[in-house]
Amino acid sequence: MKRVIAASLAVLAATAPAFADGTVAGWGRAAIPPSPVVRAVTLDPRTTALLLLDFVSQTCSASTRPTCLATIPHVARLLARARAAHATIIYSYVLSGTMTDVNPALRPLPGEAAVQSGPDKFLHTDLAALLRKDGIKTVIITGTAAEGAVLATASEAAYRGYRVVLPYDGMSSRHEYAQQYVAWDLLNAPAVGPHTTLTRLDLISFR
User: Fold this and answer.
1) Is 162 among the domain residues?
2) Which of 80, 116, 158, 183 could disulfide-link 195, Cβ–Cβ 3.0 to 4.6 Å?
3) Is residue 90 part of a domain?
């Protein structure tokens, strides 16, 4: 038995550097996955909700995340189309703020719902109830940060069986890599990837 244990330890010791090289030490050598497929989508507005996550001054400003500011005119055009089609519109705002912090270009209309939470907008909110009430089957996820509210909320939506439509140009981060890995993760993660469609804001239309 001692010989078996010693042999096992020797194998572990021999493979430890290779394992380390594949994580931190070998970070720059990791192969970049192929670019994902971007698809046009046509959605039924009666069963679709557009989620606008944390487009607020605390997380989406020239000082906090200028890349988020750059997405706003494009998200605003999708918002206008979703409203015209009578899709459900739901906002979120951060724990330290109020709905008055939403960027003026995306300001909610009377009757449009909002939730207040951390990264996972289902957590300690009535988001799930709002979606059920309107018979929602598909959620379009836009917002910031990509690695925060977008990733957490989109993953949870997929776990709950919703179809997730992710416009890559409707999410932002301080780092381009974060936007890329979030897109990759949502397309490849178990129980999430099969429910996720990667698209572009101008490729989303409504019946």
Assistant:
1) yes
2) 158
3) yes
